[in-house]
Amino acid sequence: MRSVFLAAATFLLVPVLGGCASMDRAYDAMMEPEHPAPQEMTEAAKPIDASSTRKLYLNAVRGLIDQGRYKAALAYLDQYAVSEKGGAEYLSLRGEALLGTGQYDAAVDTFTELAGTGRAADGYAGLGRVAAARGNWSEAAEHFGNAVGARPASAEYLNNLGYARLHLGPEALKQAEFNLRQAYELSPASTSIRNNLVLVLMMRGEKREAQRLIDGIATRKERLAVRDFARSWVKDQEKKQAVN
Fold first, then answer.
1. Whole-number percent of the chain with pLDDT over 90
2. Which of 52, 83, 128, 244 is deepest in the core (most CB within 10 A)?
3. Of 76, 49, 80, whose CA–CA distance to 61 is shortest?
4. DSSP state of 117
């Protein structure tokens, strides 16, 4: 797990808003730099004629998405669809790539289709991430709640649900804290979950426990980064609530 950065995306969906985690790697330049295709992709680009080759192909596409090369991933997925039927993994990857390129309506269609397969939880989570990217936190919380309902022991989905509820006002903070405590107990090594738990504890006035979590961070630089970000984030949320 990478160390904390001073950006809200680090606190959310680290694949994590997960998730929305990877959205901070989306390309926003007018032209994407060229990259040589990885060896796995070169092999996968050959005619697809066996289950093992299909798996290799989709794994290579996943690698492109992990690198933030969403446009390239979409191109290879389009090629895949020429000769293969789109299954759940294909839909999951396509939804991720569409979300990464900001094609939200198309991503909603794809994740909705995924929610109708045996990977319903992933489909709901994808819909939640699209809603979060659009700033619709109420809708995001609903979708993440459905994802948790389908996969209750997922620390990632509990983290996303808790973070979404952090944006819904004081009345949702108790539920947000419960979700994030669950996520932290399931995945205590996750920095994104820890950071989100710090946020909700500070929002609820439980500053001693929040400080205890911060004190447990290994390096002084990261401790200060988490502390300063959390203070700034909480102050911004309090201002928004005062206006509303």
1. 69
2. 128
3. 76
4. S
Would you state the structure tokens that stand for residue 67, as one six-digit string? 């690198």
Kindly report the CATH number assigned to the domain that includes residue 234: 1.25.40
The pLDDT confidence band at residue 55, using thresholds 50, 70 and 90, is confident
User: Does 47 fall in a domain?
Assistant: no
Burial class (CB in 10 A: 0-12, 13-18, 19+), 178: middle
C-alpha torsion 162→165→170→174, nearest 10 = -40
Measure the CA–CA gap between 24 and 130, rounded to whole angstroms. 13
Report yes or no on 152 lying in a domain: yes
194-219, pLDDT tens digit by residue? 999 999 999 999 999 999 999 999 99
Considering Cα of 218, then 222, then 223, then 226, what sign does the dihedral take? negative
Instruction: Give the closest residue to 8 by CA, choosing from 241, 236, 229, 237.
Output: 229
Sign of the CA dihedral with 171 first, then 15, 120, and 150 last: negative
Q: Is residue 157 part of a domain?
A: yes
- Mean pLDDT for the chain overall: 83
What's the pLDDT band for 73 if we cut at 50, 70, 90?
very high
Does residue 70 belong to any structural domain of this protein? no
Which pLDDT value is given to residue 30? 29
pLDDT score recorded for residue 3: 32
Placement of tokens 């700033």 in the chain: 135
Q: In the block, which residue shows the tokens 């489909």?
A: 123
Residue 228 lies in domain: 1-21+141-244
Could you give the CA distance from residue 28 to residue 59 in angstroms, rounded to a whole number? 24
Domain count, the chain: 1
